[in-house]
């Protein structure tokens, strides 16, 4: 028991460092998400939404709000861990962690926790912005909160993997451009998935963002396009796969030891 507590002693230090880092540069880490969300709400919600009409029995603005909030959360959590870990490698700060008696799971947990906190802060900001547009109603706060946490954790770990393999700043941005962007547009943020052709609809079922957005949409509106239990089962599966992948990469020293 004492050994376990000693192993976790480094966790608060890593976690506080992560939170302090993104709060100290809040103009770069928090404000852009708020601006992007506001523009999405103005363009897709107010300007285009009136022409689209209702979607699944609710206004188009209400339909897209859960997806837009989760989009902000996902990108914030992902970017937080990716850039933080890569900069630690770039500035050789990571070497201090590598020579310290810190288990890999403690280091990973510290980065994940930092990403989750940034995701939750951005999520709360997004809720406030959406409320200002009069487009917020929450059917199940517990499901909304759980989805926010799980989404932040999943993409914090995805960002961790990206940072481990990144050898330069181009490598940090290539995954958001060529992987995250297609996943987002095939995740049902702006449309119901049954509107897709059969090939793309079936392909979307492999997309973790689809389940995140549907769980969030159920939490906000009570509407869902996939089974809620399946959505949480898939999110849990992605969490476990990413977590053990991160641990395996840390154990092998991928991207950390030359």
Oligomer: single chain
Rg from alpha-carbon coordinates: 19 Å
Shape: globular
| Count of alpha/pi helices | 12
- Order the strands across the largest sheet as they lie in space: 1-2
The amount of helix comes to over 70%
Mean pLDDT: 88
Biggest sheet layout: 2 strands, antiparallel
Beta content: under 5%
Contiguous uncertain segments of 5+ residues: none
Name the structural class.
Answer: mainly alpha
Number of strands: 2
- The helix/strand order is HHHHEEHHHHHHHH
**Distance N terminus to C terminus?**
34 Å
Could you say how many structural domains there are in total?
A: 1
Secondary-structure map:
Blueprint: H1 2-7, H2 11-24, H3 26-29, H4 31-52, E1 54-55, E2 58-59, H5 60-90, H6 94-99, H7 104-132, H8 141-165, H9 169-185, H10 198-204, H11 208-221, H12 228-252
Antiparallel strand pairs: 1-2
Helix pairs in contact: 2-7, 4-5, 4-7, 5-7, 5-8, 5-9, 5-11, 7-8, 8-11, 8-12, 11-12
